[in-house]
Every structure is written in C-alpha cells, then in structure tokens.
Design goal:
mainly beta
C-alpha cells in the first residue's frame, strides 16, 4: 500500500517561509516522479512543482506563480520530497498535496499522478 504523508504546513505572515515535507512509503521511490499541487479555497487543484526520478540529471518544473520563490527537492535515501517556500504571499494560501507517479517522468498534469497525500494547510496572512 502506497502512502504519502505531508507535514510542515501552518500559518505564516506574508514574506515568510515554510518548508513542506512528504514521506513516501510502499512505492519504488527512486523510480517515481514526485510533485506538489495545491487547492486554494473555492478553486480547482493546480500544479505547483514537480521533479522526475533521479536519472542522470534532474528535471524540475514550476508553476509561473511560484517560480523563483519555491524549490522542490527529494532525498532518495529517506524517501522524502520537500517544498521550500519563500516570500510567501496571501494568494499562496491553500491545501498543499504531495503526489507520486509510477512513472519516473515528471509532468504538470494532475491526472498523470497515481498516488496522493491527504494534504497540509498553508495559510499566509497579509
């Protein structure tokens, strides 16, 4: 059974930082593309950042709205993927979800991901 467990969410003031983590189990982590998506209140879930399996070099993709502020990374020894968020804005307020693909190729398409965490709330106050 595959499980993804997010942690690190919380309340932060605008301009602050948070680091989200996702612990994965039950899957071949080194062969899996990983990603973060988010759902803001009354909006559809959207892509935030993804990275592919650790082949010879890494591919990472970011939504334009977070580029330069967020950094996705993975620790293959610990089966974790993280999202470092800086210069947070009120519009970053959302539930953040960790996602994994059976494939090692990262995509920005939500439906390509096979496994999902329960989500962690991030609230940015102005």
């Amino acid at each position: 059974q595959v499980t993804l467990v997010e942690s690190g969410g919380g309340l932060v003031q605008a301009g602050g930082s948070l680091r989200l983590s996702c612990a994965a189990s039950g899957l071949t982590f080194r062969s899996s593309a990983m990603g973060w998506f988010r759902r803001a209140p009354e909006k559809e879930r959207e892509f935030v950042a993804v990275l592919n399996a650790p082949w010879s070099f890494s591919y990472t993709y970011y939504a334009d709205s977070v580029k330069g502020r967020f950094t996705i990374s993975r620790d293959n020894a610990k089966n974790t993927v993280s999202l470092q968020m800086s210069s947070l804005k009120p519009e970053d307020t959302a539930v953040y979800y960790c996602a994994a693909r059976r494939s090692g190729s990262a995509t920005m398409t939500e439906s390509d991901y096979d496994y999902w965490g329960q989500g962690t709330q991030v609230t940015v106050s102005s």
